[in-house]
Design brief:
This protein is α/β, with parallel strands linked by helices and about 650 residues long. It has two domains: about 180 residues, Cobalamin-binding domain (Rossmann fold, 3-Layer(aba) Sandwich), CATH 3.40.50; about 325 residues, TIM Barrel (Alpha-Beta Barrel). About 35% of the residues lie in helices and about 15% in strands. The chain contains 21 helices and 20 strands. The strands form six sheets. Strands 1, 2, 3, 4, 5, 6, 7 and 8 form an eight-stranded mixed β-sheet that branches. The protein has a three-stranded parallel β-sheet with strand order 9-12-13, with helices on one face. It has a three-stranded parallel β-sheet with strand order 14-15-16. Strand 15, helix 12 and strand 16 form a beta-alpha-beta unit. The longest helix has 19 residues. About 45% of the residues are buried. The C terminus is likely disordered.
Length: about 650
């Protein structure tokens, strides 16, 4: 039920009250922190039986900094208010916007009180104070959950004429007192999060919430793990608390009615709780009813069990999840110990991957690059593990989150961690800056050739029939390219003109390209010949001519090409679809040992690719999600086939995910 009274219509509503401005600011609509700031605003309205309404006019959440919602509009009324209190929530993607906005607000109204919270506000002693020293426009930093803390701050301020010196008994904050910084005692977590109203259901977002590409949903809080690169476990002290599923279901319906295409479930381990199965069913049913959402993103449970398997199967079959996502990060025991993740066993992932394979669900995993304890060899091992289990390896670069255990001084000293000005890990005791660049190159090499499918089937054939591990081959290729090996003219151009690693920034290791890649795909058949000649020379193997012809032609057929008409057919000397069906039917390549029928024993085949894509006018490709196979055209070669009725389901075609 909508419990909103404030209209947010302007200064005429303010009367003699102070005004609270909950501000969700960012430079892109889909990264607005509206839910976190909305949770605070919704709770302020009901705190102690609406106590704060006597002293404050609480504006609805305002969004700003994005198209259609300027910062100037978000700041309207701040200067005119008798006393303004501005609330900001900072994440890595909007922190700089918030810090600049705080300065702008103080220029508008030097007496405004600015309160900031969120995971980008450092919690460690001295570091919070340094953060506030560097950002003098901010008056109060809230550490941890902000709903109750902000309510108590506002209550004290109203009782003491808005003097910050009255806040010493409000736990979980750091503020500017008359005599310097004041850090109060740590705040306990909220025991019953269902006491917090839903800003979706109380109308907090009604003036502007519609047609969001991605909406945020929170079904529980907490994380039982203490991975050092993440601030989730350390921030929530392991205890997981959950919102009532009926409330979450109502929020899902609200979001769907507002035509949000995707939902991001902002839990640390979605699929860990029994109620997550019910919520997954609710998401699928809601999509069937309203046509929204069309996609779901989340951080899925780490130790895969029955609940997670059920959740992912429901979401995949309901069309909300293309791949079963595994939060692998690394398989190396030394790295797992260094990041305090050794309580999550690789065997749990293997069980999960076996289930996904049996259910014909594509698999993807996150692999972190730049972890303490990591080396080039350990990353190669991780990528080989993903290859062997047919898992798409989505890379992301390790950042120094200000509240993660990794950011604590003694940990940084132990692992000799050096970070860049924008918080990215640059080197540790186990890898240099040069090693890190090589690891980025190695993952990109894997991403291009395997995850995006450009040489995937060749590499699987090579490993199983000739005993050459794919990552050993790709690493040897990368070393030769870095040396500008004259035998590899197309490879050298690919690395310099398409990979362009030194020009790429950001947390995610997503490879995209523009028209500069046209030369490569025009000459893709020549690249297959060049790559194979390199392998034969470097590793002393000789592929039978008919087998290379079959693999190379099939590989070429599933790579998008300009000028090609579909359906596209090619005559092959061996039946590659039946050959690779052997790979599809096992979870791990280890199961094929001594059981693989060789390619040369298969009869000829007419291989047909009909992905129903529009005629391509550009080879450009932009990747938004490393968990999906977005470049390779759908074909009967795919290790995971969409389920269809009828005897020939495996041979049927589906719309391609490649972007024209």
């Amino acid at each position: 039920m909508n419990t909103m009274n404030e209209s947010g219509s302007g200064t005429s509503e303010y009367a003699d009250k102070a005004v609270v401005f909950p501000l969700a600011l960012a430079n892109e609509k889909d990264i607005l922190p509206y839910l976190s700031i909305g949770m605070v605003a919704a709770y302020l309205r009901v705190y102690r039986e609406r106590l704060l309404h006597d002293a404050y006019f609480i504006e609805r959440v305002r969004i700003g900094g994005v198209p259609g919602h300027s910062l100037e509009e978000a700041f309207a009324g701040i200067k005119e208010a008798r006393q303004s209190v501005c609330l900001l929530s900072s994440y890595v993607w909007n922190n700089q916007v918030n810090l600049a906005a705080a300065q702008d607000i103080k220029q508008l109204d030097p007496n405004a009180i600015i309160i900031i919270g969120g995971p980008e506000v450092p919690k460690y002693v001295d570091e919070t104070e340094a953060f506030l020293e560097q950002n003098p426009a901010i008056d109060i930093a809230v550490l941890g959950e902000g709903e109750v803390a902000c309510a108590e701050i506002l209550e004290r301020l109203a009782q003491h004429n808005y003097s910050l010196d009255c806040l010493s008994d409000v736990t979980g904050i750091v503020y500017r007192g008359s005599d310097g910084w004041v850090r109060t005692a740590d705040r306990e977590r909220i025991a019953d999060i269902n006491m917090l109203p839903s800003p979706y259901l109380t109308g907090e977002f009604d003036p502007w919430f519609e047609h969001f590409t991605s909406a945020i949903l929170e079904t529980n809080r907490g994380c039982p793990y203490g991975c050092t690169y993440c601030d989730w476990g350390s921030a929530t002290l392991a205890k997981v608390t959950k919102f009532d599923p009926e409330r979450v279901a109502a929020e899902i319906e609200y979001i769907a009615q507002k035509s949000s295409h995707a939902i991001f479930v902002a839990d640390a381990n979605f699929g860990m709780l029994e109620q997550d199965i019910t919520l997954a069913e609710c998401l699928v049913d809601t999509r069937a009813k309203y046509g929204f959402p069309t996609r779901l993103y989340s951080n899925f449970a780490k130790n895969g069990g029955r609940r997670l398997m059920s959740v992912i199967k429901i979401l995949h079959e309901g069309g909300l999840l293309e791949s079963g996502i595994i939060a692998l990060q690394t398989t190396d025991e030394g790295v797992l110990k260094a990041i305090k993740r050794d309580n999550i066993k690789t065997s749990s992932y293997e069980k999960l991957m076996g289930f996904f394979n049996s259910e014909n669900i594509p698999m993807a995993s996150d692999i972190m690059i730049g972890l303490p304890g990591q080396t080039i060899d350990s990353l190669q091992k991780d990528l080989q593990f993903c290859f062997d289990w047919k898992v798409t390896a989505n890379g992301n670069y390790t950042s120094m989150m200000p509240n993660a255990p990794m950011a604590e001084k003694s940990y940084r000293e132990e692992f000799q961690i050096v970070s860049t000005d924008d918080g990215m890990i640059a080197s540790t005791s186990t890898f240099t800056a040069e090693d890190l660049m090589y690891m980025r190159c190695l993952h990109t090499t894997y991403q291009f050739h395997v995850s995006l499918g450009n040489m995937k089937y060749y590499l699987y054939y090579l490993q199983q029939e000739h005993g050459l591990q794919s990552m050993a081959v790709l690493r040897r290729w990368l070393d030769a390219v870095l040396e500008k090996d004259a035998r590899l003219p197309l490879s050298n151009r690919l690395y310099c003109e398409v990979f362009r690693l030194k020009e790429r920034t950001g947390d995610w290791a997503l490879l995209s390209w523009g028209d500069e890649a046209e030369f490569f795909f025009d000459a893709f058949d020549d690249y297959c010949v060049e790559f194979n000649a390199f392998v034969e020379a470097e590793f002393g193997v000789a592929l039978p001519a008919s087998e290379f012809e079959a693999i190379a032609a099939a590989q070429s057929a599933v790579v998008p090409r300009l000028g090609r008409e579909y359906p596209h057919e090619v005559e092959l000397p061996h039946h590659v679809v039946r050959y690779f069906a052997q790979f599809r039917n096992v979870a791990s390549l280890s199961e094929l040992k001594d059981n693989l029928k060789p390619l040369g024993s298969f009869i000829p085949q007419t291989f047909r690719v009909s992905p129903f894509v529009k005629h391509k006018t550009s080879i450009r490709f932009e990747q938004y999600d490393g968990h999906t196979v977005a470049w390779e055209l759908r074909s009967p070669l795919r290790f995971s086939q969409k389920k269809k009725s009828g005897a020939k389901a495996v041979e049927s075609q589906a719309p391609a995910a490649a972007k024209a």
